[in-house]
Amino acid sequence: MATEYLWKAPALALVIGYLLGSIPFGVILTRLGGAGDLRQIGSGNIGATNVLRTGRKGLAAATLLLDAAKGWAAVTLVEAWHPGLGLLAAAGAFVGHLFPLWLRFRGGKGVATLLGIVIALHWPCAVVYAAVWIGLLAFLRISSVAGMTAAVSAPLSAAFFAKFEIVPLLIGLALLVLWKHRDNMARLMAGTEPRVGSRSG
Questions:
Q1: CA dist 174 to 9, 16, 21, 34, Å?
Q2: pTM higher than 0.85 for the full model?
Q3: Nearest to residue 151, comparing CAs of 120, 124, 172, 122?
């Protein structure tokens, strides 16, 4: 019985995280707000940057907050239920956002959801993450550069704060963020990556 529970609890943590992470708030909010199907707008991505291309700043802000909140909630709820399984819930939530079952596994790029996860795991790292993301976004106005750099800052800041137990997970999630931005990288190399406020990319 105890052996059976050993694998059931981690599996449930992953499932809870995945189900929370896979909620496509960008798609839901744009439909409810009368802005159409987000997947048919701009880049087709379900994140806040693409919601902004609808011209609805309020919906974009709400998408960002809710995408971050689901990452935070997955870690916090599972950790409250079963201390020690928060990292598995974090991984599940992140994978759920990137590959949601409900959207045929075509999800977002994970920058906001990763922020929520980092807030739950270690808030000082989240302060660094947010500062890097917001600072670069304000300075360069290129969402992909800001998001990728913020993601890379997560494991680096965790190591700086000696939170070594979360570094491997954050490295893995940062690599997934970079992989999801591979088209953006190609456009950056070509000099065609749009800046915030444009309606493509």
A1: 26, 21, 16, 33
A2: yes
A3: 172
